[in-house]
Model the fold of this input.
Amino acid sequence: MKNILPLYTIIILFLLFNACDKDAVILENEDKEDIKDNNEDKKDDPTYQLVWNDEFNGEELDSDKWNYEIGGTGWGNNELQYYTSRSENVRVEDGCLVIEAKKESYVNRNYTSARINSKKKGFVTYGIIEARISLPSGKGTWPAFWMMPETGSWPSNGEIDIMEHIGSNPTMISHAVHTKMKNGSIGNNWHKRFYKDNVEGEFHTYKIEWIEEEDKGDDCIIFYVDDEQTAKLYQPHLSGFEEWPFEKDFFVIFNMAIGGNMGGQVDNSIFDSPILMKVDWIRIYQKR
Ligand SMILES: [Ca+2]
Ligand SMILES: [Ca+2]
Done:
């Protein structure tokens, strides 16, 4: 079954079920209002409806939707920052999620930043996953909008990198997926780079459309930047889990790493100005 969190109210379920035929969607009242507004976008779309979103319009991060990931372990990529949940590093302001990286000694690290995820709170199998993001600039920054599986270990259970950017390559947007057969640890993961001016300091939308059995029984994932299709990845024909683990629930992550395998060498002078990743909204749609 295609499903989505949050868990809390079952009250609206019946109403929704009368309107839609197959997707199980459980929503809170507040979310329902948001969704009503945002469905204006898609009200004429016979295919998709909004099922989970955060407009980041409150005063603080919504703990019903997000978890903080905290620590300075390098996160598997030799990243240099310590991720905290402090407002210095992660907050909601002026209608946006703001992740700010800082140069400061903190526990075992010389930089701080933040990483949040929607594990067990917002996840989906298939659908459209889209966010409107303004990226930081500066050598050594490595912000990302990506997805990991609700269950199972990496890399067998997959990873979908909707958008990664590095400040050392200021116009580059990277899309990638990792599977058991093809992943970063053996250096052969699928990826595609796309170049666009002004991704740093300006808002753009980053999106995947993840489609079940789009062609001859095979799934696909289509990547978009500002609604322009930038990459399309098909499931290897009728392949199994080792090559295509993307048939189960994935949650969302926003983070900004400093340095690390992809972020590269850090130019410490970048911290003379605030290093900010801003997310205006995230919206997840599923087929009606
Ligand atoms: Ca399939
Ligand atoms: Ca917003």
